[in-house]
Request: fold
Amino acid sequence: MQGIVLLLPDFGLILLGWALYRLVDFGDNFWSGLEKLVYFVLFPALLFKALASTRIDFATAAPLFASGAAALGCGVLCGLFAAPLFKHNKTVFASRFQCAFRFNSYLGLAVIGKLHGAPGIAAMGILIGAMVPLANLASVWMLARQGNLGLLREMLRNPLILATLAGFAFSASGLTLPASAGQLLGRLGDAAVALGLLAVGAALKLRGTSGSHAASCYLLAVKLLAVPAAGLLAASSLGLSGVYFDTVIVFAALPTATSAYILAVRMGGDGPGVAWLVSANTLVAMLTLPLWLTIALRY
Reply:
C-alpha cells in the first residue's frame, strides 16, 4: 500500500496526459513538439546538472553501477533470446528489442525523489548517467545493424549520451557550476519530470497492433519481472543498502521509456509496434512497480 501511495501522483500525471490528449484539442503537433522538447532539451539539462553538481566517488559508487549494469544486462540478454519469436522479421525485432531494457528516467527520478529527496535524485542521476550510454549503445547498435546506419554517428547525435558525457567531464574537472547556470538548469530539470510524464501519458496507444502476442508478453515479462529480479539479486549480493539499494530497485523496475519510440521512428524502425509495447509496459508497470517498491522498502 505504501508503494501505491508513493506512486499515485506520478501515475496521476501520466493518466492526466492521456486524458488531455483525448479530451483537449491541442493538436498532434503540440504533443510531438513537447516530446522533442523534453528529449532534446529538458531531460539532457536535468542529467547534466545532476552529474555536474555531484562529486562522484567512483570507488564508492562502483557497486551501484555494477548492480544497475547487471539489471540492464539481464534485459539485453533476455531480449536477444526473443529473436525467434519474431519469426525472422529483423526490423520489427530490432525496434522492439530495446523495450526489454530501456527505462523511463522521468518516472525514476520522480519516485526516488519522494523516497529520499535530493540524495535520492543525485544517486538516480548518477546511475542513469552511467546506464544511458549502455542502453543507447545496445538500442542504436541493433537498429543501425538492421538499417545499415552508422553506429558511431547515431551515438554522437544522441542528446542523452552527450549530456551524460558532458556531466561526467564537468564533475571530474572539479569546477563548480555558476549559481545562475545552476538555477537555469534546475528549472529546466524540474520541467522535464512533469512534462515528461504528461508526454508519456499522451503517447499511450493501445489500439495499434501488438504483433506477435507471445513476443510482446515475453518482452513485458523481461522488463517488468526479470530485470527487477536481477537488480534485486545484484544489489543484495554486492551489499548495497539505503539510498543506493532503493535506487537500483526503482531503476530496474521502471517501464520502458517513450524515447524507444522516438529512436525507432528516427532510425526507420517499427514505430507503431514500439508505441504499443511502450504503452502496455507503462500500464502494467502501474501494478508491478508498487510491488517492487514495497519489496525494496521492506528488504
In short: The longest helix spans residues 105-147. The chain has a mean pLDDT of 85. DSSP finds twelve helices and no strands in the chain. The CA atoms of residues 103 and 254 lie 5 Å apart.
